[in-house]
Design goal:
alpha/beta, Spore Coat Polysaccharide Biosynthesis Protein SpsA, Chain A, 9-stranded mixed β-sheet, 23 strands, elongated
Length: 439
């Protein structure tokens, strides 16, 4: 029993106990949890601006700056996993952007409803002043918004605001099993042969779609991308981030005046997850020079079926990266017709670097997008499901690139010819693409 000398102390204690009991109950009761979430958001809503109806300028680009030039909108997505929220993927200055508002276009009456946003800058900024952000707004009651605008104020003229279609409003059946997200292609990318080999390996392993956030590439690479787009394998998302921000090709801040790291890679990865949330069973986050190679299974579908059976409730599977240095090669599979194509022939690089003592090997992911809220590059930041590190004897990432341990003699490397299990199909498929695009 609690004894209080003063009434206001009792009142404070009582409020704390009531709030704590609500939180405890909310973990057990999803409906109550949603109710609490809605009450928190409801404090941030305002009425409809007088006399204003749905208008605005349709946004035409993937990256849309707001007038403050501190906020850049990528796309809004409907997210009803907790409450009916519009989650806007964006890029913001982590100090300068404190408040934003969602201007919803409600249906069927066409009226505007303004809701105060929760601006959630992702924790992995790596020191850069700009970072990926979720701009979350609770959708108003009795409103089925199809479009939303984002503004610094609850007041203004709707005609002056860019208008974005809210994606993922309608449930869909999965059109593909695996989608690979590659972000970002930049630096006049011209590693043509390795790119084609990676895409063909993805297809052999069970991928139906590859989404590429493209900043720029070579003219020859453009021809290859055009072929894969027409084939239906590749989807290109134009990513001119350097038109808006000073980008770094490094992942961490170098005190060099740049605004955001690695061409906004983290923002692109988060957008790719939400973009494919309803159309792909799994989303794979890796780079174009990385291939998740299964060792116990012939393809990703059988591998993931086994991993999910062994790890019920898991939504994120992390695979360990291993470097196969492009400086160490074998004469096997020296295919003469490939020698004129710029880029690395991965079939000739089957020696991997040994693990370094006390050095963490980064991981890339195959994940269930519906269980992810926010992701970084090598792990998820917020998710509903568990994460599991996949053992190396099940699968590893074949990463053919410049060495990290360049001083090691060849005999210190580990010969690993797992990739050669696919050599026959890979050579045939690559030849077909080269014949139709370059040769």
């Amino acid at each position: 029993m609690i004894h209080c000398g003063k009434k206001h102390i009792c009142a404070v204690v009582a409020c704390i106990l009531i709030f704590a009991s609500m939180l405890i109950c909310s973990w057990k009761d999803p409906q109550l949890q949603n109710s609490i979430t809605r009450k928190i958001f409801s404090q941030a809503t305002t009425a409809s601006p007088a006399g204003q109806h749905c208008r605005g300028k349709p946004a035409k680009n993937v990256i849309t700056p707001l007038k403050d030039n501190r906020t850049f909108i990528i796309a809004p997505y409907f997210d009803d996993r907790e409450s009916k929220v519009t989650r806007v993927i964006g890029i913001v200055h982590h100090e300068d952007v404190k408040q934003l508002y969602c201007w919803f276009c409600c249906q069927p009456d066409g009226k505007i409803y303004v809701s105060k946003a929760k601006v959630d800058v992702h924790s992995d900024r790596f020191g850069f002043p700009y970072g990926a952000a979720d701009i979350d707004c609770l959708e108003p009651e009795n409103c089925d918004p199809t479009h939303v605008s984002v503004h610094q104020s609850p007041h203004g003229n709707i005609d002056q605001l860019p208008r974005f279609e809210i994606k993922n409003r309608k449930a869909e059946t999965f059109s593909v099993d695996f989608t690979v997200c590659i972000s970002a292609m930049f630096g006049n990318y011209n590693n043509v042969l390795q790119f084609i080999q990676s895409i063909e390996m993805y297809k052999i392993l069970g991928v139906q779609k590859v989404v590429i956030y493209k900043n720029n590439c070579s003219h020859l690479m453009e021809k290859v991308l055009k072929f894969y787009m027409e084939e239906g394998t590749v989807e290109i998302i134009s990513w001119p981030i350097n038109s808006h921000l000073k980008v770094s090709s490094e992942w961490h801040f170098m005190q060099d005046g740049t605004h955001i790291g690695y061409y906004g890679q983290i923002t692109a990865l988060n957008d790719c997850i939400y973009r494919n949330m309803q159309r792909s069973k799994f989303v794979v986050l890796n780079d174009a020079d990385e291939i998740i190679l299964p060792l116990k299974h012939p393809d990703w579908k059988t591998m993931m079926s086994s991993l999910q059976e062994q790890n019920p409730g898991t939504g994120i599977f992390l695979f360990e990266n291993h470097i196969f240095p492009e400086t160490v090669s074998t004469h096997t599979f020296n295919i003469s017709s490939w020698n004129t194509v710029p880029g690395v022939n991965i079939l000739q690089h089957v020696h991997r670097e040994p693990d370094r003592k006390d050095v963490f090997n980064p991981r890339k992911m195959i994940l269930d997008p519906r269980k992810v809220i926010q992701t970084s590059v090598h792990s998820v930041l917020r998710a509903y499901g568990n994460s599991v590190n996949v053992p190396m004897d099940v699968a590893l990432i074949y990463h053919c690139r410049v060495p990290l341990q360049g001083n090691l003699p060849r005999e210190s490397l580990i010969r690993d010819t797992t990739l050669w299990r696919y050599n026959s199909s890979l050579i045939m498929n690559v030849n077909k693409v080269l014949y139709q695009t370059i040769l």
